[in-house]
């Protein structure tokens, strides 16, 4: 099939690529834009590894055609850090050992980010629900909850201090 | 203050940042110039002879560059050298639905996929063997005609230790139960993937999601017919393994051959359904356990029989068979023990090693039976286990050497944490609490290829800026092996883990390590790195001591500093000391290796499976509630204590305990790799019920440290053992809740409801039925094929 030109807004940048029109957002991100941080575990919408945010909402990129999302902003794991500054979730995931093999992690981080964008102090139940579509075979989810908790706490602290990030924990 | 500066600290893993930023490069993330995409054609038959394969139509298809079939790689292969019964692609026969038959390389994945339907394969269907009973009795249908054993028996083993007959005669009571453990699969989130590149210099590189780069290296040489010196295997970070990436796989050979043929890189990435066929997961095992017990509960003798449903090929099956018997003796005192194990071939995807390899199923049986014994004795199940513990620094009846042994402490910890004695037997109907103990090896005592070489080798280099590089053939599968190596090297050299660069899983760059299986990496590779880094430490210490004018035994290394213990202000940076050492001794590179000691097993045929330099121990308590209306078992909490010797990185150890408990929970409650007429019933993540965050119980991990005398800084394994006690703990909790013994897995709502409605006190197998209708399998197959066809026509 002939490739067609496609324009997407990804991680704050407008990107135009030539892609197969039947290829999913997952395929375009990974193969045409080289953003391989987005993973795939089934390509059937069952595992959540391919989760990205579209205008802040978690979406399964393996079930989404780029043409469906138009001008909406796509956030992948590569867009989570702001320059050299890691997102508090990334730091907390490292400290709490919430990433083992790391394969579900990009999707997990984005589902968690969406949760923290909606609510600043989520309960365990809210966390479980937010990541219910993201399967993890390594952690048993416990460390992930602890990491989300910690990130939420740091983000609340930052908010209270007037928007300054606490010093990076990565020494 | 701790005697260590890195060991035991709650530090992030050295390789975690790539996972968190999307820069970790898994096999499928690799993109090379002119790369082709491969797909495998798989058998639609459970058992059939291949009469003819014609790939000419596929080859003529636009965009297809090359095709290969079994005839192109006729060399037998398999992970265990003594039981190689596989081919890279099927030759003459297919033995399960999903058995790879041919491979295509094309300009893109869509084209490769389309081309599969253009490969013409003519099959002569044969009757499939689908159950253990059929496999044992059907002499007329043989899955491997040349196996040399009766019917479809792959292997049978018989071992006896101590006075078994006498033990049963003196017993006050003999418990005699049958158990069944259903097969399950690993389902790592990353599907298998490999990229091969055959370059102009005649050298082949394979990047692959494998746990065993060294063993794969051997098999590639054998099957491809090119010397190992021209092959480089690079194990990419595995997106989970759990044992499922420990065999050489069809797509790895096909990628290599097609790359050699086309002189272009070739990538194969399995789709999720294919991973269920690649399998090599937990064996379904039917078990018969007889235990003699004295009036006060001492075990007088055990006779254990296991029947393993191995699927179509050997895989690790010979080891699995022995493992079902070997570790029964290392937890509780057994004066006499008899073990008979049989593994059979069936026309289903091959089973192999899954977390707990072969020990999970018998542990389920044993711990469920102990619960029953304790109940009859009127003893608390924890108190009973504490009374019969195998002591530390002892020998088991089957000759296994026990050193550090923390099962008692683990039981104590879970008892205290859950207030078990106050709850057990005293909760309202529908609520229950159960316990189980278990053990695992810190690496197999013997290698797969019997030889005198090290099991693990490492080299360590210190550069002139104070950076440290560790080279080791281990495979990082998410268990944190790179970090373990970095922690050990950093502790030895007094630097921080972020100063350590780890090069792992590369057969060209790193010394051989046998791979990430049998929970061997922390213990074996950890010791190899400890030795290598220790040798450099000596050079750095001597150089610094000379410079500072103090005796070498007063020099300490920590936090990137080398200093005088008597006057800590007197010292220098590690980088300065390294420059002094290099000036004095030349390039700072050292090697280390590890091989388990010799005296850790008995001396009999079969004694090679079971021994290890150190056993890990664990105890789990499960708290459940059973909905009497729906039969749904909700596991509310799992509390597990694990004796890991010493926690080199506590968050990583806790993560292994929690992850293993989660995986065991799934196997206890829902997961099953099951078939209808040889066709997988649930080959997707929607149908194969993995626990989600909504299902997974609350978990509490407790680290018990026994400081093993031979482990690196006292460490033992943490990756596999913690799965084992969870499943019987849940079954025992269900019994406490509703008075029904589940002697089989999984404990599904349908089974619970059925047992409650029929007032059953037990759900489980009755024994080995040999009265089955021998033609039933074929009839079932026809029935389901017909039904499928009808469905197709209707839809």
Describe what you observe in this structure.
The complex is a heterodimer of chains A (171) and B (795). Chain A is α+β, with helices and mostly antiparallel strands. Chain A has two domains: 4-79, Beta-grasp domain (Ubiquitin-like (UB roll)); 88-160, [2Fe-2S]-binding domain (DNA polymerase, domain 1). Chain A has helices at residues 25-32, 66-69, 88-95, 105-118, 124-130, 142-160; strands spanning 4-10, 13-19, 51-54, 57-60, 73-75. Chain A has a five-stranded mixed beta sheet, sandwiched between helices. In chain A, a hairpin with a 2-residue loop joins strand 1 and strand 2 (13-19). The longest helix of chain A has 19 residues, at 142-160. In chain A, 52% of the residues are buried. Chain B has 795 residues and is an alpha+beta fold. Helices cover 29% and strands 24% of the residues of chain B. In chain B, the strands form nine sheets. Chain B has a seven-stranded mixed beta sheet with strand order 3-5-1-12-9-10-11, with helices on both faces. In chain B, strands 7-15-14-13-8 form a five-stranded mixed beta sheet, with helices on both faces. A four-stranded mixed beta sheet of chain B has the order 18-26-27-30, with helices on both faces. In chain B, a hairpin with a 2-residue loop joins strand 23 and strand 24. In chain B, helix 10 runs parallel beside helix 18 (726-738) and helix 17 crosses helix 18 (726-738). Classes of the chains: A alpha+beta (171), B alpha+beta (795). At the A-B interface, helix 3, helix 4, helix 5 and helix 6 of A face helix 1, helix 17 and strand 30 of B.
């Amino acid at each position: 099939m002939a490739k067609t030109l496609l324009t997407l807004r990804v991680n704050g940048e407008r990107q135009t690529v030539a892609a197969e029109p039947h290829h999913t957002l997952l395929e375009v991100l990974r193969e045409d834009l080289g953003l391989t941080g987005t993973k795939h575990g089934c390509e059937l919408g069952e595992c959540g590894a391919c989760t990205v945010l579209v205008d802040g909402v978690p979406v399964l990129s393996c079930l989404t055609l780029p043409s469906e999302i138009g001008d909406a902003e796509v956030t992948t794991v590569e867009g989570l850090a702001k320059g050299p500054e890691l997102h508090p979730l990334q730091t907390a995931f490292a400290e709490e050992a919430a990433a083992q093999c790391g394969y579900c992690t990009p999707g997990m981080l984005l589902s968690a980010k969406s949760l923290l964008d909606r609510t600043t102090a989520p309960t365990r139940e809210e966390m479980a629900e937010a990541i219910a579509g993201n399967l993890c075979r390594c952690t048993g989810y416990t460390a992930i909850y602890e990491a989300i908790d910690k990130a939420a706490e740091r983000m609340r602290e930052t908010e209270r201090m007037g928007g300054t990030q606490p010093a990076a924990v990565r020494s | 203050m701790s005697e260590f500066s890195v060991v035991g600290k709650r530090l992030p893993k050295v390789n975690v940042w790539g996972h968190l930023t999307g820069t970790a490069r898994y096999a499928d993330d690799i993109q090379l110039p002119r790369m082709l995409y491969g797909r495998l054609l798989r058998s639609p038959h459970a058992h059939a002879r291949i009469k003819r394969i014609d790939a000419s139509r596929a080859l003529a298809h636009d965009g297809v560059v090359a095709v290969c079939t079994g005839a192109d790689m006729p060399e037998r292969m398999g992970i265990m050298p003594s039981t190689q019964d596989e081919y890279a692609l099927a030759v003459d026969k297919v033995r399960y639905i999903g058995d790879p038959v041919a491979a295509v390389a094309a300009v893109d994945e869509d084209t490769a996929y389309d081309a599969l339907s253009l490969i013409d394969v003519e099959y002569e269907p044969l009757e499939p063997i689908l159950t253990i009973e059929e496999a044992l009795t059907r002499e007329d249908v043989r899955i491997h005609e040349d196996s040399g054993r009766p019917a479809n028996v792959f292997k049978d083993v018989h071992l006896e230790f101590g006075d078994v007959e006498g033990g049963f005669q003196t017993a006050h009571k003999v418990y005699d139960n049958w158990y069944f453990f259903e097969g399950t699969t690993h389902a790592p989130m990353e599907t298998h993937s490999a990229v091969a590149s055959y370059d102009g210099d005649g050298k082949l590189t394979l990047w692959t999601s494998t746990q065993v780069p060294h063993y794969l290296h051997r098999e590639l040489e054998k099957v491809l017919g090119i010397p190992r010196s021209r092959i480089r295997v690079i194990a990419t970070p595995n997106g989970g393994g759990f044992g499922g990436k420990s065999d050489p796989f069809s797509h790895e050979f096909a990628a290599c051959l097609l790359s050699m043929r086309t002189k272009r890189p070739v990538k194969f990435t399995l789709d999720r359904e294919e991973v269920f066929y690649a399998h090599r997961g937990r064996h379904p095992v039917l078990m018969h356990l007889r235990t003699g017990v004295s009036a006060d509960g001492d075990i007088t003798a055990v006779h254990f029989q296991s029947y393993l449903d191995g699927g179509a090929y050997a895989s690790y099956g010979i080891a699995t068979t022995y493992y079902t018997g070997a570790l029964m003796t290392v937890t509780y005192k057994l004066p006499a023990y008899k073990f008979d194990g049989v593994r059979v071939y069936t026309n289903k995807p091959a089973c192999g090693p899954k977390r707990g390899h072969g020990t999970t199923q018998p542990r389920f049986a044993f711990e469920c039976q102990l619960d029953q014994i304790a109940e009859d004795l009127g003893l608390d199940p924890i108190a009973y286990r504490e009374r019969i513990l195998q002591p530390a620094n002892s020998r088991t009846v089957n000759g296994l050497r026990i050193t550090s042994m923390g099962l008692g402490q683990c039981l104590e910890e879970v008892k205290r944490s859950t207030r078990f004695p106050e709850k057990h037997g005293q909760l309202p109907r529908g609520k229950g609490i159960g316990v189980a103990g278990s053990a695992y090896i810190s690496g197999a005592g013997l290698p797969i290829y019997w030889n005198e070489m090290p099991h693990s080798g490492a080299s360590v280099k210190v550069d002139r800026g104070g950076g440290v590089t560790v080279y080791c053939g281990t495979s990082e599968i998410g268990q944190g092996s790179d970090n373990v190596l970095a922690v050990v090297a950093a502790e030895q050299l007094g630097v921080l883990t972020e100063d350590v660069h780890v090069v792992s899983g590369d057969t060209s760059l790193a010394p051989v390590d046998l791979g990430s299986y049998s929970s061997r990496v922390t213990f074996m590779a950890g010791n190899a790195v400890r030795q290598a880094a220790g040798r450099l430490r000596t050079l750095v210490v001597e150089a610094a001591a000379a410079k500072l004018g103090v005796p070498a035994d007063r020099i300490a290394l920590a936090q990137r500093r080398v200093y005088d213990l008597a006057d800590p202000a007197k010292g220098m940076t590690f980088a300065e000391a390294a420059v002094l050492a290099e000036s004095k001794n030349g390039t700072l590179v050292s090697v280390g290796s590890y091989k388990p000691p010799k005296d850790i097993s008995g001396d009999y045929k079969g004694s090679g499976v079971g021994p290890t330099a150190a056993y890990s121990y664990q105890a789990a308590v499960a708290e459940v509630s059973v909905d009497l209306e729906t039969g749904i078992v909700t596991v509310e909490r799992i509390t597990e204590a694990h004796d890991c010797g010493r926690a080199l990185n506590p968050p990583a150890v806790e993560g292994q305990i929690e992850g293993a408990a989660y995986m065991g929970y799934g196997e206890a409650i829902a997961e099953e790799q099951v078939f209808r007429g040889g066709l997988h019933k649930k080959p997707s993540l929607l149908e194969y019920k993995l626990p989600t965050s909504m299902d997974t119980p609350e978990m509490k991990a407790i680290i018990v440290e026994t400081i093993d005398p031979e482990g690196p800084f006292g460490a033992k394994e943490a990756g596999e053992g913690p799965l084992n006690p969870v499943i019987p703990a849940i079954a025992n909790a269900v019994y406490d809740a509703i008075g029904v013994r589940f002697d089989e897995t999984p404990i599904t709502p349908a089974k619970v409801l059925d047992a409650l409605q029929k007032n059953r006190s037990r759900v489980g197998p009755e024994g080995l039925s040999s009265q089955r209708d021998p033609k039933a399998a074929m009839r079932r197959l026809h029935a389901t094929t017909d039904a499928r066809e009808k469905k197709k026509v209707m839809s």
